[in-house]
Every structure is written in structure tokens, then in C-alpha cells.
Design a protein that fits this description.
The complex is a heterodimer of chains A (522) and B (415). In chain A, a hairpin with a 6-residue loop joins strand 20 and strand 21. The longest helix of chain A is centred in the first third of the chain and has 31 residues. Chain A contains 18 helices and 22 strands. Chain A is of the alpha+beta class. By secondary structure, chain B is mainly alpha-helical. The relative contact order of chain B is 0.16. Chains A and B meet through helix 1, helix 2 and strand 1 of A and helix 6, helix 10, helix 11 and helix 12 of B.
Chain lengths: 522, 415
């Protein structure tokens, strides 16, 4: 076996030295090319520049095809095509529909991205796909003339989304909500209009609202009608009534002792705003007696009561299509804590969202069938979904009768209408403390929920005024607003319910009168 | 008994050469990064429908396995396999250039860029030139360390000169001039360190004369698709064609091929990039555009058709454009480190076979990397040479990493 001679090691080191020298030459050359002559060489660079062509974002349309949000060509954007995109986002109704459409933000450099509401929920549909072009530019920034612009793909506009919203009603409801907030000096107001037979949301206006076209960072367009939860107060009494009537415990004529407005129980003393003696259930409901509701609640029992509430859609999100919907809060009270049950029967100690409350009223108007609220049309048009038969049709009729009494001769008198019977219920509740303990001093939330015409319901409507100053009763604040909205809806010729309501009114103009007088006598 | 941990009698098992392996790993990582970038560009141009990176990564993995194999198998084993392997690879080389004599087998012989360097076996394309390099080094190390070897006498160098001359002839016929040249340099340096005559003298001359005269005398098969120009000052919009038009048969033999390449060459001491041939010019532009810190990974624009074959022949230019002078300097430093560690391993050996094997493997890697770097920086005329560890290509990757494994095995055997 041959061993390495010393000469070989020496020669290997010479090879190493030569190799290192070679790499030093390469390195020196790299210094020359990349550092010394870099600027000179960069002038000869010819390279592709990629630019994106913004796709036109799909429109959000109301049920008639009127745009609530639309992307329009804005010529000032063409100056800087790569960074701004040639399209602007316009909201024709301004702040009136902001709580429904939601907002977009310029998150990508060449387009919009939905941030809230429908804009974000249907982002993938609305967005479309951006186009892409490439062209050559030289190092001095000039486009090369000898190679044509290559279009990789053309922009594909996004699809439109049709909402169940009726733009006319939405605009009217917004005006009315603004007016109500101005006149009552409330912290916020909201008006929700639904169609009981299908669960379509026709208008969902809120004040204060943001104009999504005038985007300011930090603003939120969240719709309080399904993102805020509050104690409903008396309007929640429909639940205890439904439970009691469903079980056959009471009829509208059943007599109830309302204890002359003061009922002392070991746990708590109950008060009524207007003291009543022994009256029929109809009268007790019409005058919104808390004591009657408390007694009914205790009679029904907590498990039946909570089951009925859950059947009517409380305590859970109503629809997967409402963005950021709150679930409300509904816990079954302990069986022995009857005062807690009694409080819940009159709408305290639980929280609901506006859409939950009105959807329960819709179920009553709809023969007891609870529908899923719909805000956007599906691909195959509108798809009304029955959630469940919440109460029997007979119970629904009885409740309609009771609610009609509340409007005809009770707390909701201000919502009476000359042409037809209205069914509705006022509600006044204290606002729960921000820290979750007790109630805020002097802070109330007034509601009025109802539907009309009572015998063939076409529209259900909810009016909320939160934390007003001065008068804070639902009957005094919200019922008049309800009445004004009714007048506007009947008169609105562009509205979706106009034909149905017109035929209703022309077919039996006197029927409403007849019914109203009957109820009044009862 | 005192256990010694250092010195020649150390009982601790020898550790792998982490600096050598680390430098290799750095080059591999840079290669993967730049392949991702180039692959994306070629993908966007619709050139490689399946993406370069997707095929590069498995080759890296296979190469690492080959490296482990080379490191774990005793170096003596290769000694006995050298001769049969050499014969096999020579046969493969002859098979590769059969089309030059009009014997094309469809779907097996592929012409790329006017050269016959590959043949296709099903989905795998084999490049015998890559196989030949390490096999030749092993065989030469074996031959020169035989007891009766006489590297200092011309008589003792006849077999290497015959084998080398034959290889140079075969490479010249492909044509792959730079591979032939690199092989000559490797062989010359191995003979030199084995105690032979001063490099460049007789060995080099003999191999050159043998190879080149044979290549010149061989008649070229006539081709119908003869184009006029060589790779000089090609119009920009048919870059790909200009690259393939470097094929020698179009302009009449090897001399036209060589002179065509030389026409577009400006020696480095004259700074005039615009007079360089298209490839060298674009390569310098890419490097210069990168500047100190580069345009950022994936932002290079020369991969978009400006630099043809950037994934095989010009990855260093892409690195220079995207990672800048810093990136290319890391590559240069890694190569210098590989050279240094390889020679160090050689100098720690005792037996001539191990010594020659280490020197040969090191030189074989570094010479071809050096040729590639010199081409990219326009120090030498354009020639299609890949950079080991970085360039795209399965055979090269496999054999280069195998060479590193063998180097490491030599280093750990300490004999």
C-alpha cells in the first residue's frame, strides 16, 4: 500500500492556494459587477411589471333590484391604476342602509374587502376576481414598445347579492328612527320590519347609523337589531301568555286578581303602573299588568315557561345569515325561586335581541309557525324556512286577540289605526347595569312590537327606543312611531306590500272597524 | 488506563466535518430558494407545467441519501468498483452520442439546445456526463495509488490519458466542451499532486491533443434545420432559439462552435458589457441589478425569459439579482470553504488512495463550480456548465452530494 509522500501534501496546498486565488478573482469580479458598476448595468434592465386590474365588485340590491351598494367607475382612480383601482364603492341610501349592507375597507392595494355585514358575509361572491397584465419596462422605468402588453387574465366582475330589504321601507324606517331618536333624545333607536308569513326582513333601520360610503376607520355598522341584547320588559309577556293558553290554563275571559297594583310575596313586592282589581285576562294584558304576568308565570312553572320561550326562538341565534348576531340570554330559573320565574314572565332577568322579539310576534301572526328570518335571497330565490310550529294555531289566534286588545283599549292605544285592527304589545324595561349587576338609574328601553292587519297579518314591526330622556314608556314613545310607520307603509306606492295591503283594505274596508268594535266591547 | 480524547490515538469515534457539510447545506438551501423563485417565473410563463421546485426538492432529498451512502460506505469499496463502473459509464457515453452518427433511437435520445447530453429512460432522463465525473475520479485515485503506478513518467500515464482522451472525445462530440475541460483540469491536478510532472505540461497536452483532434476529425451529421447565427447578439424576442442555435452542426463543426462562442466574449479587463454575447450581457445585468442587497427573493425579473436556462446554467445570476452581492458572496465563500476543508481532509490522510480520492473529489466539485461562476461573471466565454448543489438537475445533484459523502468518509477514516 502506498503512503502519501510529503511532496504530495505540499502540492495539495499549492492547489488549495490556487483555488482560493481563483475564488478571490471571482469575488473581485462580483464586486466590480454588483457594487461598482451596478447602477450602469441596471439601466439596461428589461423586466416585467405585473399590474392588477381591479374587478368590479358586485352590487347589493334590494328586493326590487334597487342598488343599496354598487361599484361605479371613478375616473380619478385611473391615474394610479395599480394602487387604487378604478372603482369606487357607492351607497345610494347613505347611512339609511349602512346597518344592513355593512362596510368595505381598502385592505388590498387595488380593491375593496368586505369588513362587516352583507359586504363581508358575501365577500367571496361580491369580490369577483382581479385581472392581471404584465408588460416589460426598462431599468429607467419606460415601458418597452417592442413587446406587447400581456394580459394574463381579464377581471371578472363579482356577482350581485339581492336582499329581502325593501329600499323604500328601509329609507322610511330610517327617517322614522332618526326622528324618534331626535324627539325622545334616546341613546339609540331602531325599527325592524318583517313579513310574518316568510320571515323576510323588509327593513332594519337603526339610529345612529354610519354611512358606509364615508368610511372612517373605527366606525362600526353593526346592526343593533341583532347585535344588541336587552331586557325586553312587557313585550315579552307574550311568552307567558302563550305558555298558559297553550296548556289551557286560561282563556281571555279568565278572571285574575291583580291585587290593586301591589302584591306582596315573601321574596319581593310587585307593582303595577296602573292598579287593577279582579279583571279578565284580556284587560290585564291590555293594561300590561305585571302582577297578572307574574301569577301566570308561577302557574305555568319554570320548565314549561322556558320551553315555550325557546320554542318561540328566544335564547338562541335566529338565523345563520345575520352577521354578528347575538344569541340573547335565557336561563331556566331554579324551581323554588318563584320570584325569579315571575320576573322572567314579565320580561326581566333575561335578554333578547330585536329580531328575536319580532320573530316571536311573527310566529303569532303566522298561525304559530316560527320562521327563520331571511335577509338575503338564495340562489334559487327566496326560501322561507319553517323552524318549528312554536305554538298551536288556536293559541296564536287567542294571543292575537289579546294583543289586539292591548292596542284597542290598552297601553298601545297610540298604535290604533282607522282602517284595520292592529295587534301589538308595549314594553318598558330598565337597562341592565354595564357591570352586569342591578339596573342603571333612570335608563329605560321602550319597545313596541306588533303586526297588522291583525286578522290577516302582512307586516310585523318593532320599534325600539333605548335610554330616552323624559317619557320612557313604550306606549308613549314607540306606539306613535309604530303608527306613523304604518301610515307610511300603507301609503308607500313603491313598497313591496302595497298590492297586498291595498287589496286587503279595498276588499273589506269595514271589517277592521267591526273587529275593532268587538274587541273594544270585550 | 487513560482514555485519550485527542491526538492520533483518540478512541472517540471521529466526527463528521461539520464545516464541509454546513457549507454544502448553505449552498443547497440557497439553491432551493432560487429554484422556488425561478420555478414560479417559469410556471407563470407556462414553460414548466409541473414546477421546477416540485422536482428539485425530491432530488435534493435523494442527493442527501446518496451523501449518507457515500459517507457510510468504506472508501475501499469504491476502489474495487472503479473499473467496472468506468467501463459502464463509457458505454453509456458512447450510447448518448449515437445520434451524431445517425443512430437515433426515438424517445430515448433527446436533443436539447443542440446537444446530445441526455438520454431518456421512461420518465427519467440520464446524463452520463454527470455519472462519469466521480467515477473517473475514483478510478484515477485507484490507478495512481497502485503499487506499480508511475505518475512521474509518461509511460505510467498512458492509461489515464487514453481514458481521459476518450472521455474528452465523447464529451466533445455531445458537445460539452466545458465538461471536457473541467475533466482535463481535474485529472491534471490529481496527477500533479500524486507526484506527476508540473501540471499543464505533458499530461494536459496529451489529453487535449488526443481529444480535440479526434473531435475535429469526426464528421458531423448534416442537419436540415441549419440557422445562420451563433449565440452572438441575438434579437431579444427569440431568446430561446438563439440559445439553441449555438448547436455546432449548424455552422459547420466544432471550430465554428468555439469561435462562435469566442466572438461574443470580451476579456474581463475590458469593461464593455454591451459587446458581450446576449447571455453574458443579461447575466451581468441581472447581477448588477441586484446590487448590494438584491431585489428580494422572488422579485428577480431575469427569470422571466431574459436569462434562458437560468435554472441550470445561471442560478448564480438569479441569486445575484434576488439576494445581491451578499448572496453571491455567501456562495463564493461556501465554495472556498468546501475547497479548504476538502484539501484539509486530504492532508490528514496517510494512504495515497485516500489522499487522491479526497483531492480528486474536492477539485472535481470546485472546478465545475468555478467554471460556472466564471461563465456567469463573464470571466470566460459562455459554456453550459451547472453549479453543483445549486443548479437544477438530478444527476449532478446526486453525484455532487455523493462526492461530499465520500469526502466525509475519507475525513473520518483518517487513513
Amino acid at each position: 500500500m502506498r503512503m502519501v509522500e510529503h511532496r504530495s501534501f505540499r502540492r495539495a496546498r499549492i492547489v488549495l492556494a490556487a483555488g482560493i486565488l481563483f475564488w478571490l478573482v471571482v469575488e473581485a469580479r462580483l464586486v466590480q459587477i454588483q457594487l461598482v458598476r451596478s447602477a450602469e448595468l441596471s439601466r439596461d434592465v428589461v423586466h416585467h411589471r405585473v399590474e392588477y386590474l381591479a374587478a368590479q365588485r358586485g352590487a347589493i340590491l334590494d328586493r326590487h333590484g334597487m342598488p343599496l351598494a354598487i361599484s361605479i367607475f371613478s375616473p380619478d382612480g385611473t391615474q394610479d391604476l395599480a394602487n387604487r383601482g378604478p372603482y369606487g364603492r357607492d351607497y345610494p341610501l347613505g347611512d339609511a342602509a349602512g346597518a344592513v349592507t355593512g362596510l368595505v375597507g381598502r385592505t388590498s392595494p387595488y380593491g375593496f374587502t368586505g369588513k362587516e355585514g352583507i359586504e363581508s358575509q358575501f365577500e367571496s361572491l361580491l369580490r369577483g376576481s382581479d385581472g392581471r397584465v404584465r408588460y416589460l419596462i426598462t431599468g429607467s422605468g419606460l415601458a418597452c414598445a417592442f413587446e406587447p402588453l400581456r394580459i394574463d387574465r381579464l377581471p371578472e366582475p363579482g356577482a350581485s347579492v339581492s336582499l329581502t330589504i325593501d329600499g323604500v321601507y328601509q329609507a322610511l324606517a330610517q327617517v322614522e328612527a332618526e326622528e324618534l331618536r331626535r324627539s325622545s333624545d334616546a341613546r339609540w333607536t331602531a325599527i325592524l320590519v318583517m313579513r310574518p308569513s316568510t320571515g323576510e326582513i323588509l327593513a332594519a333601520a337603526a339610529s345612529p347609523s354610519v354611512d358606509p360610503g364615508d368610511f372612517q376607520p373605527g366606525l362600526s355598522s353593526a346592526n343593533p337589531l341583532w347585535t344588541r341584547q336587552f331586557e325586553p320588559g312587557s313585550s315579552f309577556k307574550i311568552v307567558v301568555l302563550a305558555a298558559a293558553v297553550e296548556r289551557g290554563l286560561v282563556t281571555p275571559e279568565t278572571l285574575i286578581d291583580c291585587e290593586n297594583g301591589r302584591w306582596v310575596t315573601p321574596a319581593r313586592t310587585w307593582h303595577d303602573t296602573s292598579p287593577l282589581g279582579v279583571v279578565s285576562l284580556r284587560t290585564a294584558v291590555a293594561r300590561s299588568s305585571n302582577i297578572a304576568a307574574a301569577k301566570l308565570g308561577i302557574q305555568v312553572g319554570s320548565s314549561d315557561f322556558v320551553r315555550c320561550a325557546r320554542n318561540l326562538g328566544f335564547g338562541a341565534r335566529t338565523s345563520p345569515h345575520l352577521s354578528a348576531e347575538a344569541p340573547g340570554c335565557l336561563h331556566e330559573p331554579e324551581a323554588r325561586r318563584r320570584s325569579a320565574l315571575a320576573a322572567m314572565a314579565m320580561g326581566q332577568g333575561l335578554s333578547v335581541t330585536g329580531v328575536q322579539l319580532l320573530n316571536a310576534f311573527c310566529a303569532i301572526a303566522n298561525g304559530g309557525r316560527l320562521m327563520q328570518p331571511i335577509l338575503a335571497f338564495g340562489d334559487e330565490g327566496i326560501l322561507p324556512t319553517v323552524v318549528r310550529q312554536a305554538i298551536s294555531p288556536a293559541t296564536a289566534r287567542t294571543l292575537t286577540d289579546l294583543l289586539r286588545a292591548a292596542v284597542e283599549g290598552g297601553t298601545g292605544r297610540a298604535a290604533r289605526h282607522d282602517l284595520f285592527a292592529v295587534a301589538g304589545k308595549t314594553g318598558t324595561a330598565q337597562v341592565a347595569g354595564r357591570d352586569g349587576v342591578g339596573y342603571m338609574e333612570g335608563a329605560y328601553i321602550a319597545t313596541f312590537a306588533g303586526f297588522f292587519p291583525a286578522d290577516a297579518p302582512q307586516v310585523a314591526m318593532l320599534v325600539i327606543a333605548a335610554e330616552p330622556r323624559g317619557s320612557y314608556y313604550g306606549g308613549a314613545l314607540c306606539a306613535p312611531a309604530f303608527k306613523r310607520m304604518m301610515d307610511l307603509i300603507i301609503a308607500a306606492p313603491g313598497g313591496c306590500l302595497y298590492p297586498a295591503l291595498a287589496s286587503e283594505l279595498s276588499a273589506a274596508p269595514l271589517r277592521g272597524w267591526v273587529h275593532a268594535s268587538e274587541v273594544g266591547r270585550g | 488506563m487513560v482514555e485519550r480524547t485527542r491526538g492520533p490515538l483518540a478512541t472517540r469515534p471521529p466526527r463528521p466535518d461539520f464545516l464541509l457539510l454546513g457549507a454544502t447545506a448553505v449552498l443547497l438551501a440557497i439553491g432551493v430558494a432560487v429554484m422556488a423563485s425561478i420555478g414560479e417565473a417559469r410556471d407563470a410563463m407556462g414553460k414548466e407545467p409541473h414546477g421546477i421546485l416540485a422536482r428539485h426538492l425530491p432530488r435534493v432529498v435523494l442527493g442527501i441519501i446518496a451523501c449518507a451512502g457515500g459517507a457510510l460506505i468504506r472508501v475501499e469499496t469504491w476502489r474495487w468498483l472503479a473499473k467496472p463502473f468506468l467501463c459502464l459509464v463509457l458505454v453509456l457515453l458512447v450510447f448518448t452520442i449515437l445520434p451524431r452518427f445517425g443512430l437515433t433511437i426515438d424517445h430515448v435520445h433527446v436533443q436539447r439546445n443542440g446537444a446530445f447530453r441526455w438520454f431518456q429512460v421512461g420518465p427519467i432522463s440520464v446524463m452520463p456526463g454527470e455519472l462519469f465525473k466521480p467515477v473517473f475520479v475514483v478510478w484515477l485515485a485507484h490507478f495512481l495509488s497502485l503499487p506499480h503506478a508511475m505518475p512521474h513518467k509518461l509511460r505510467g500515464l498512458v492509461p489515464p490519458m487514453v481514458v481521459g482522451g476518450l472521455a474528452v472525445l465523447l464529451f466533445g462530440l455531445q458537445p460539452a466542451i466545458s465538461t471536457a475541460a473541467g475533466l482535463i483540469v481535474t485529472a491534471a491536478l490529481m496527477i500533479y499532486v500524486a507526484g506527476g510532472p508540473v501540471p499543464g505540461a505533458r499530461t494536459l497536452l496529451c489529453m487535449l491533443v488526443l481529444g480535440v483532434t479526434a473531435a475535429v476529425l469526426t464528421p458531423w451529421a448534416p442537419r436540415a434545420d441549419a440557422a445562420s447565427s451563433a449565440a452572438v447578439a441575438a434579437p431579444r424576442n427569440d431568446v430561446e432559439e438563439s440559445y439553441s442555435s449555438a448547436a455546432p452542426e449548424q455552422a459547420g463543426g466544432i471550430w465554428a462552435y468555439v469561435t462562435g462562442r469566442l466572438k461574443g466574449y470580451v476579456p474581463p479587463w475590458k469593461w464593455d458589457p454591451r459587446r458581450l454575447c446576449y447571455h453574458s450581457h443579461q447575466s451581468l445585468i441581472a447581477l448588477g441589478f441586484g446590487g448590494l442587497g438584491g431585489q428580494g427573493l422572488g422579485n428577480g425579473c431575469h427569470s422571466y425569459g431574459r436569462l434562458p436556462e437560468s435554472h441550470t446554467d445561471y442560478p448564480l445570476a438569479a441569486i445575484g439579482e434576488e439576494l445581491g452581492w451578499i448572496g453571491t458572496t455567501v456562495v463564493v465563500a461556501a465554495w472556498a470553504l468546501i475547497l479548504f476543508r476538502g484539501i484539509r481532509i486530504a492532508c490528514n490522510t496517510v494512504r495515497l488512495y485516500s489522499f487522491l480520492l479526497a483531492v480528486g473529489m474536492t477539485v472535481n466539485l470546485v472546478v465545475f463550480a468555478g467554471v460556472n461562476a466564471a461563465v456567469v461573471t463573464a470571466l470566460v466565454p459562455v459554456t453550459g456548465q451547472t453549479m453543483p448543489f445549486i443548479s437544477y438537475g438530478g444527476g449532478g445533484m446526486l453525484m455532487s452530494l455523493f462526492s461530499v459523502g465520500v469526502l466525509d468518509a475519507v475525513g473520518r477514516s483518517r487513513t
